[in-house]
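Quick one: structure for this chain?
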Amino acid sequence: MKKILLAVLLCLSLFGLAACSGSGSVSGDGEKETATKDSEKVVMKLGSVNNDKHTLHEGYQKFKEIVEKETNGEVEVEIYMNGLLGNDQTMIEALQLGTIEAVGASTSMLANWAPSMMAFDLPFVINDESEADKLLDGPFGEKAAKQLEAEQLLLVGYMENGFRHLTNSKHEVKTLQDIEGFKIRTMQTPLNLATWEALGTNPTPMPYTELFTAMEQKVIDAQENPYGNMALDKFYEVQKYLTKTGHVYNPMGLVISKKFYDQLSPEQQTVVKKAGEEASTYQRELNRERSEEYLKTLEDEGMVITDLSPEARKEFEEKVQGVNEDFAEKIGTEYYDEFMAEVSK
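Got it. Here's what it folds into:
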C-alpha cells in the first residue's frame, strides 16, 4: 500500500514539474515574442552642436514626434544636443560610416561634401527670409541636396540658424576700418576664411564647440553667428559689441545617413522624408518669431548694438565682391549661375 502511495505521489510530482516546465515554456515564448518586437524597433540618433534651448531643438523634436507617431513607434528618434555626439565634422563623418543616423548641420559644413552648398555662404547676397525660402524650397535647394547623396548623405529638410552678425570684445564696429586686424573665429570652410581675409581680419577656423572658451580666454577677438546662438550660449558674457551685419544667411541641413535610410522599409522612408519637410517649415517659422526676442536678450544683457549705415554696408559688400567671383568655380559654375539667377529674380 505504501509503495502504491509513493508511486502516486511520484507521478503527481512529475506532473507538477511538467506543468511548471510547460508554464515556463509559455513564458519563454512570450519573452521571445517581446524581444522580437523590440529588435524590430529602429533607433535613430540625431546629433547637433546647438543649444538644447534653440529653436533647432524644437524642430528636431517636431521631427521626432512625426516619425514616431506615423511609424507607430517602429522608428524611435533620440536627440543629442550641445555637441554631445561631437562637432559637425566628426558627426557628418560618422553619418557616412553609419555610426550616427542623423545630424543637424550647417550648410557651411555640408559644403565640404557638397560644394554647391557653399553658395549659401556667399556674403551679402541673400537679403531676407523670403529670398532664402525660394532658394531652399526651389530647384537650387533640391539640386544642392542631390549632391550629398554621392557621399552617403541624404538631406530631408532645410531648417535655419538665421542671418549671421558680427560681435567682438574690443570696440564698437561702425565701419570696415573698425575690424581691421581682428582675430575672428570662422567656420571651418574656405569661403568663410576668404571672406574675412578680404575684410581685413585674421580669421581662425574653429569648431563651434570650442568657441566660447576661445572668446573667454581672449584667443580670438570676434566671431559671427545668428542672434539665437549668441543669446542662448551667453556670448554677452565674453563679447561686448554686436554689429548687425546680416552678411550671410545660414541654413541648417537635417541630414540622414544613406546607409541607415536604405535599411528602412519604403513606408518608413516616406515618413522620414515627410517629417523632415514638415519639421523644417515649422522650425523656420518659429526661429523667425524668436529672432527679435534673442536680440532683445543681448541688448538687455548689456551688449552695445550697432546698425551699419548704408554707406558702411556698401563698403563691406564691395570688399567681398572678388571673393564671390573667385568661388564661382569652386561652387561649380552651373550651380553658381543658377543660385545668382534665383537671387536676382
